[in-house]
Write a structure and sequence with these properties.
Blueprint: H1 3-19, E1 38-44, E2 50-57, E3 64-72, E4 77-83, E5 88-96, E6 112-120, E7 126-132, E8 135-141
Parallel strand pairs: 1-7
Antiparallel strand pairs: 1-4, 2-3, 2-5, 5-6, 7-8
Amino acid sequence: MNRRTVLRGAVPLAAAGLAGCLDDEGGFPFEVGFESPIPIEIHSEVDRYYNILLEAHEPETGRESYDQAYAVVPDESITAPSMDPREQRLRVTLFRGEAGADVEDADVDEGAVDEIEVDVDGDTRLVIVRIREDGLVVEVDP
């Protein structure tokens, strides 16, 4: 038996095997994909120190899914750890800071300068947080 004969027989067998995997709409009954983590960038465009707190919660359970805090110096850019690619509510809180201040001591209820909440999910590709003279800006790139 030569290679052509083997290949001619293999193609119909492969098509027949694949036919059972298709659902009524002509697609695969399962989704194949890879969701990558959501990167977070923080950019300070001001001439003073700030403390920033990033917290995320799952909307259905209220479970905290992300918690990071940073002391941001003037004109600094920070790449924060990435978030899991799932549906979450991200709250970014900005506090006036001092050089060398301990970020962990920041109290959300006292001294908050600005606070923004945004929704992120598995389709979100990037979250950019900008500290500007006119306030806090959070950009979500879907």
